[in-house]
Write a structure and sequence with these properties.
This is Phosphatase PAP2 family protein. This protein is an all-alpha fold. It has a single domain, classed as Orthogonal Bundle (Vanadium-containing Chloroperoxidase, domain 2). It contains 7 helices and no strands. α2 crosses α6. The longest helix has 30 residues. It is globular.
């Protein structure tokens, strides 16, 4: 086996071991399972981010610009994760029954591929873009994005590696959008 193949096999084994550890960890409170299930479902179709963007857009100036950039980044990350990367990688979803993820954590299992987490990519893209314009919003939005990502593992629909890849992809897409907007803005003012 090649060194790259060996490294990939080790990463997959680590990913599966962390997934199994999360599945086996007892919840400190039933409310945690319920809250993470609700958060994971609320993040479907980026409803949380779109709600925040709508509220930000009500205020003129930087908040409105932050909302627009956040939505552009979110859209870019969503297309990149869900239409491009999932189609190319085609990683199967985890078998949460075999991993013994408690049924109290279950949400409907998506029919799409597992890698990367589109929910996480969109949430981190939005948090990164908005945070670049509104630094005080960066920490809470990034924490929320992290909670969305963890909720996807906790409910058994993603491996931790899917979430990590989604977070990196989302932040990267936000960086691309921000750079493109700066370049267009510079060209228009030149």
């Amino acid at each position: 086996m090649t060194p790259v193949g060996t490294a990939l096999r080790a990463l997959v084994a680590l990913d599966q071991a962390v997934y199994a550890a999360v599945a086996a960890a007892p919840s400190p409170a039933p409310a945690l399972d319920s809250g993470l299930r609700r958060l994971s479902v609320a993040a479907n179709r980026s409803r949380i981010s779109f709600t925040v963007a709508g509220l930000l857009a009500l205020a003129p100036g930087r908040p409105r610009r932050a909302a627009l950039l956040g939505v552009l980044a979110l859209g870019t990350a969503s297309v990149t994760a869900n239409q491009l990367t999932k189609t190319l990688v085609r990683r199967p979803r985890p078998d949460r029954v075999a991993a013994e993820v408690p049924a109290t954590r279950h949400i409907p299992m998506p029919g799409s591929a597992s890698f990367p987490s589109g929910h996480t990519a969109a949430a981190f893209a939005f948090a990164t873009a908005v945070g670049s314009q509104l630094p005080l919003a960066a920490v809470p939005l990034t924490a929320l994005a992290g909670c969305v990502g963890y909720s996807r593992v906790h409910t058994g629909v993603h491996y931790p590696g899917d979430v990590l890849a989604g977070a990196l992809l989302g932040a990267g897409c936000a960086g691309v959008v921000l750079a493109a907007v700066r370049r267009v803005g510079s060209a228009l003012t030149a």
